[in-house]
Amino acid sequence: MNLFLFGCLCFILACSPHDPNKETVSMTTIELPEPQRSGEISVEESLQQRRSVREYASTPLSLEEIGQLAWSAQGITDPARSFRTAPSAGATFPMELFFLISDAGDFTEGVYRYRNENHSLEQVIEGDLRHDLYRAALQQDAITNAPVVLVITGVLSRIEPRYRDRAMRYMYMEAGHVAQNVYLQSVPLDIGTVVIGAFSDDGVSDVLQLDDGEYPLYIMPIGKLR
Ligand SMILES: Cc1cc2nc3c(=O)[nH]c(=O)nc-3n(C[C@H](O)[C@H](O)[C@H](O)COP(=O)(O)O)c2cc1C
């Protein structure tokens, strides 16, 4: 083989998607347990008891609890049409969920994206990024107090072709539905949470390594009640 061909081969191998360095950062997928679809506490009781909570027990959340909260936020309830627990303008489904999990027994700490099509969590970043998120959100202690932090994001390109200059407004509205579902679901689980809207968009996008056109909409620290 001449030197030129050998050089080309080395270049192709170095750029290959099977680059062993990339394999080592390949992330875990965690299947979540089947969510509960009935419970002991009524919607009315949840509405009555819901409160914003900013301090939490240090107890980690279980796989079941994180799965139940993810399902309440964006779980698929009509698989034929992919319709979800929260409404979506024109069924365009721009919402995404990221869980920053620092210390939950069943998890390696990292950032996980909820895959509602198979009710699983896919790790997308390694390490505990709560402190970076705290700095991007006016140093609000609830973020570092919580063992789990949910960030709700919206992908504008899914909704903008249909709703044009109303698209961003609709994404904010959808985030409100998602967040309220999480608040209401947290009551029967003895979990506390709070919606945080005061943060730097660029700062949070950097922490989560969001693509252009994906916007952070809400941060929700989550932990067991003390
Ligand atoms: C759009 C929005 C943004 C909010 N941002 C923050 C925030 O950045 N930090 C915080 O601690 N609470 C935040 N909250 C929570 C409110 O402070 C809280 O809902 C209010 O004090 C009423 O308390 P309750 O939720 O227990 O009824 C926000 C609430 C909303 C609706």
DSSP strand content: 15-25%
What's the Cα radius of gyration? 20 Å
Total domain count: 1
Q: Spell out the CATH superfamily.
A: NADH Oxidase
Biggest sheet strand order reads 1-6-5-4-7-9-8
Going by helix content, strand content and strand pairing, the class is alpha+beta
**What number is the mean pLDDT?**
90
Q: What's the number of helices?
A: 9
Which ligands, by name, code or SMILES, are bound? flavin mononucleotide
Instruction: Please trace the helix and strand order, writing H or E for each element.
Output: HHEHHEEEEEHHEHHEHE
Distance between the termini: 69 Å
| Helix content, binned percent | 25-40%
Described by the principal axes of the CA atoms, the overall outline is globular
CATH architecture classification: 3-Layer(aba) Sandwich
